[in-house]
Amino acid sequence: MLVLRSALTRALASRTLAPQMCSSFATGPRQYDGIFYEFRSYYLKPSKMNEFLENFEKNAHLRTAHSELVGYWSVEFGGRMNTVFHIWKYDNFAHRTEVRKALAKDKEWQEQFLIPNLALIDKQESEITYLVPWCKLEKPPKEVHVLWWNESADSRAAGRHKSHEDPRVVAAVRESVNYLVSQQNMLLIPTSFSPLK
pTM of this prediction? Predict the structure, then answer.
């Protein structure tokens, strides 16, 4: 189970809105850092979710030949239903540009996956993110992983309840809540072909 929690906060220095990903990922003016991750969400037509996932699983090797797939999940709750969420790793923006050009020229990818699935996608979103400096992206010791790791949805709820009793957490939330514009949590279920579970 993956719980993705994103928060939009106000940047103090620039006085503009800057999105930030809580936990291991952050967005913002860090283009000079090199490696980044692209978060992609595909909102699918409800009757086409299984068809889309089966087609991707069958053809994933065509896409992963061009760049590293970190993980692939379906949204269980907390976001729009019939959505898949996936993370791709790139060395830098030049690498991403090379991958996009190569995919545009890859006839097998175009014919076996892209063209048949275009009609199944309602909407698509993409966001560039970076690991925050103190985090590493590693495989978890168990077959379960979250950006905020939890054994289950119930253990997450119990942990949140316990943290709300910790005066340090309460103080930190009170201090930062003035900068929060919006927040969204999603429970994500890994697909059978997701490298990160």
Answer: 0.71
